[in-house]
Amino acid sequence: MVEQLQSLRGMVDLLPAATARWQALETTARDHFRRAGVHEIRTPLLEATELFARGIGEATDVVGKEMYSFVDRGDRPCTLRPEGTAGVVRAALQHGLLSQGPQRLWYGGPMFRYERPQGGRQRQFHQIGLEFLGFADPRSDVEAIAIAWDLLAALGLGDLTLEINSLGTPDDRRRYRERLVAWLEQHHDALDGDSQQRLTTNPLRILDSKNPDTQRLLIEAPQLIDSLEDSSRDRFEQVLAGLAELAIPTVRNPRLVRGLDYYGHTAFEITSGALGAQATVCGGGRYDGLVEQLGGPATACIGWALGLERLLILQERSGTTAAAPPPDVYLVNQGDGAGALALRLARQLRQAGLAVELDLSGAGFGKQLKRADRSGARWAVLLGDREAAAGLAQLKDLQGDGGEGPATVPLADLAARLLPAGG
Ligand code: ATP
Ligand code: MG
């Protein structure tokens, strides 16, 4: 026996039983973005490593320890994208999109992070994300967040919390970092090991520590909001007021910082208590410095990303389901002439807009009819050599009460007979 191969750790197959739900989700998202005037962009899964090192920040978890990086055959350092924003900004710059005016973009697809797999955490996972490039007004923060909030509602998810904070300007953060580090140094011994290390590399990230003792300690720590300039604080108040006007409830979280270095001003996460430790479904914020950091002109931006696996877990828990739709027609056929005709007929019916499952087994009529029942199809079309020669088919209504037997229908009339009125 040959040893069977397995998928890599953290890499998950989506089997046919699950894809209907994924497609429903993607359809809802696509339609939602269309109505919001947001256009899709697709960028490569593989980018130069430098894009993420520069864009996300060397001292972040993502760049520091989660990237799938390798050197390709041409000695170029490459990385499977761990997130979507850096690639979208690179593409916008490379193709001069920003010179055509502000851009409202969305993307979807797989992302790769070398993390410890657990519920709601994989090494290949999927995101849908939005990026508003060239939007500075606080109202753009409100609109971007509302689009996320409403999409989650359209997907049938309630009971979500929008946590929000302001990270202010780079100056605000510099000021705050000094205050925070001074305070944390006094409590150095009470910090977990990871946080002690971050004290020198990326102290703001300590606020995001998942260690419960550190979290308890931080309740007393200086808060970012107190280091914000008046203008930053005003801006934050405008965003909060805008959200309140749309009846989107917010919870201020003074310790919410985001994992990526490029964020400033508005930062937010949408969380659900039903997800356990991996509570965040959607995270985002303003990243006014990123375009410049990647070699473009100063450009104000805001965006967010949703994790689809977590979203599907939530949908499952809230009982929202989507089953694969059954075919309209199950095509039963037996005999050489009928078998050949069935191939042609299936094609014709599909061209007419019907979903047709063609039985290829050559089994007896009885067996094929059982399969037709199990398929959930509305109709069975039965084709034997005798019918085939006469240009006829038997038509059986599988969803009827069984009172009426099959009807004999000329093949030429079949499509019209099966298509729903007006369809
Ligand atoms: P977390 O704190 O859970 O690690 P994050 O801050 O790293 O999240 P982001 O970079 O903001 O996550 O990505 C946006 C969303 O993508 C997350 O809110 C989450 O839903 C999803 N996500 C992130 N990493 C993973 C992963 N490894 N597996 C599945 N989903 C993920
Ligand atoms: Mg993470």
Explained architecture:
The chain is α+β, with helices and mostly antiparallel strands. It has two domains: 16-168 and 228-318, Bira Bifunctional Protein, Domain 2 (BirA Bifunctional Protein, domain 2, 2-Layer Sandwich), CATH 3.30.930.10; 329-422, Rossmann fold (3-Layer(aba) Sandwich), CATH 3.40.50. Helices cover 39% and strands 21% of the residues. The strands form three sheets. The protein has an eight-stranded mixed beta sheet with strand order 1-5-6-11-10-9-7-8, sandwiched between helices. Strands 13-12-14-15-16 form a five-stranded mixed beta sheet, sandwiched between helices. A three-stranded antiparallel beta sheet has the order 2-4-3. The chain binds adenosine-5'-triphosphate (ATP) and magnesium ion.
Give helix % range.
25-40%
End-to-end CA span: 52 Å
Structural class: alpha+beta
Which assembly state applies to the chains in this document?
Answer: single chain
Low-pLDDT parts are: none
pLDDT average, as an integer?
93
What does the overall shape look like?
Answer: elongated
From the 3D coordinates, which CATH architecture of the largest domain would you assign?
2-Layer Sandwich
List all distinct small molecules, including ions and cofactors, that are bound in this structure.
adenosine-5'-triphosphate, magnesium ion
Core attributes:
423 residues, alpha+beta, BirA Bifunctional Protein, domain 2, Rossmann fold, 2 domains, eight-stranded mixed beta sheet, five-stranded mixed beta sheet, 16 strands, 39% helix, elongated, binds adenosine-5'-triphosphate, binds magnesium ion
